[in-house]
Amino acid sequence: MACWVSVLSLACMGSLLRCIQASPCPLLPVPNNVTENPCSSPSVEAMPVYPKEAQRASIKIKNTPSFLLPLFLAHGTFQELDLSNNELRSLPKTLFHDHPEMDTLDLTNNLLEDLPPEIFKNSNALRKLVLHRNRLATLQPSWFDSLQRLDALDLSNNLLKDVPPSCFSKLENLTYLDLSFNFLHTLTPQMLQGLPRLEKLKLKGNQLLSVTNGTFQGAPNLKFLFLQNNTLTSLPAELFKPLNHLEMLDVSNNKLNSLEPHFSSQATKLSLDLSSNPWTCDKNMSALVTWVKQSVVFLCAEPQTTCDSPKNLEGQVVTSLLPSTFDSC
Ligand SMILES: *[C@@H]1O[C@H](CO)[C@@H](O)[C@H](O)[C@H]1NC(C)=O
Ligand SMILES: *[C@@H]1O[C@H](CO)[C@@H](O)[C@H](O)[C@H]1NC(C)=O
Ligand SMILES: *[C@@H]1O[C@H](CO)[C@@H](O)[C@H](O)[C@H]1NC(C)=O
Ligand SMILES: *[C@@H]1O[C@H](CO)[C@@H](O)[C@H](O)[C@H]1NC(C)=O
Ligand SMILES: *[C@@H]1O[C@H](CO)[C@@H](O)[C@H](O)[C@H]1NC(C)=O
After folding, report:
1. In this predicted model, what pLDDT tens digit does every residue of 79-120 receive, in sequence order?
2. Whose Cα sits closest to atom 9 in ligand 4?
3. C-alpha distance from residue 229 to each of 185, 187, 204, 255 (Å)
4. Distance 31 CA to ligand 1 centre (A)
5. Nearest ligand to the C-alpha of residue 285?
6. Fewest CB within a 10 Å sphere: which of 28, 140, 148, 178?
7. How many domains does the chain have?
């Protein structure tokens, strides 16, 4: 059970200490696996949750201004710290410096616009960092310098327009990166440099107009890639080619009219969501459909994957068209 602390009572310090010293607060057992049909499975997108550990202590601190946080954290050690929903606008520079044991930090739903450059200097044990729903407009690469153990990083629902070059390049153990619902308009190879273990990358609900060829070279182990709800009009032909382990690509709700089927031949468990795009049903689409049918590719939301042009094929499900139909247009 989480430990709730209010600054207004003196008793709170006592209850905080009891929480730290006595009863470890267990994590919720959310499944972190992949079900048969990744298209509709929420668990594919879900963040990793770590197994409950014997002496795990968890602190949840509520209604606390940031200047009082060091007081609360001064006693005891803890693996998990939940500072969500606190209206925090800033964090003291050294807040976590005496807590190298911390492995999970949740800062969801605060008002953070920035973080001190060395905030995580001693956080070498950190495995999960959640900054969901804040107001971060830029990322500082120095935040991530010491986080070689970090496994999951959630930066969704912030105000990010950009990712600085090599920002994540120290995150050698990162498997999960969520950048959904920001304001990114382009992706380049520099942004994803040095992510050898990355498996899930979520970029939905940004304003992506373009993705440079080679962007995913720095993350060759990507399995799940979510690019839906952006404004992509086209993608480089060989963009996904380096992804030998790709299992799920979601480009639904974009403005794509063409996609070339240049995927790695080693990606043998692939599911694609191409729905809600204005596809041009020409020879390129014919090649894509033929490839989908011949290989073991699973097409999600097939009824919503329709032609937008030419006019005589508008609204037709792309897979219902025989290659001969395409040839005639
Ligand atoms: C995923 O986890 C759930 C809950 O732990 C379990 O019931 C289900 O069988 C698992 N599925 C797979 C494919 O492992
Ligand atoms: C990265 O993860 C692997 C496998 O979980 C582990 O053996 C290794 O020690 C980790 N690296 C760091 C720097 O923690
Ligand atoms: C695209 O990038 C890949 C490496 O990811 C490279 O092999 C290929 O030549 C590039 N294609 C073009 C047209 O630049
Ligand atoms: C994506 O866009 C579609 C159509 O605009 C909308 O119905 C859907 O709710 C959006 N999904 C997300 C996750 O924003
Ligand atoms: C197929 O796609 C390529 C690259 O996107 C484009 O150059 C070409 O014109 C397309 N072919 C047709 C028949 O539209």
Report:
1. 888 888 888 999 999 999 999 999 999 999 999 999 999 999
2. 229
3. 12, 15, 5, 9
4. 7
5. 5
6. 28
7. 1
